[in-house]
What does this fold into?
Amino acid sequence: MGQAEWARDLARHLLEEPLPRRWAHTQGVAAQAESLGSILGAETDLLTAAAWLHDIGYAPALIDTGFHPLDGARYLRDVQQADDRLARLVAHHTCAECEAAERGLFDTLSAEFAKERPELVEALTYCDMTTSPDGLPVDVETRLAEIHSRYGPEHLVSRSITKATPCIIAAVHAVQAALGHSGQ
Ligand SMILES: [Fe+2]
It folds into this structure.
């Protein structure tokens, strides 16, 4: 069994009942990851596993700091003893450093979880930011606008997303360029 199947079952256990919309989003993000086989090759399984797990830090049972990339990554490291790479990808998904800085957790995040190589980090960001909250494919601009309207202009998440936007757009474009070169 690959990591992705294990990750899917774990994510379902943590998200499906308490957070059905987050679970729908997660399924769409995982489908996007599976579609990147032409550029990720053997690492598609790792990326798909990370896609299944990227938002488990929102699960009520896992909330600790309230910063979901860190809570999810710590759970994977400490409770599940998961593959280091998986925990690192979850910790840094979707330019998480920007929100970590807003929350005063930048040093903690950086000290506990090194970054995975940029192509994988970008691929996970692409999958997350081209999938709507309901799990449907969407362009990155629509996704960013939806986050702003959901949280409102004063919210920490909106401020973080504004700072992260160049990082997010660059990641999405890098993956789209790679897909173009691979003939997809
Ligand atoms: Fe997330």
Observations:
- The chain has a mean pLDDT of 96.
- Residues 54-55, 68, 93-94 surround fe (ii) ion (CB under 6 Å).
- The first helix runs from residue 3 to 15.
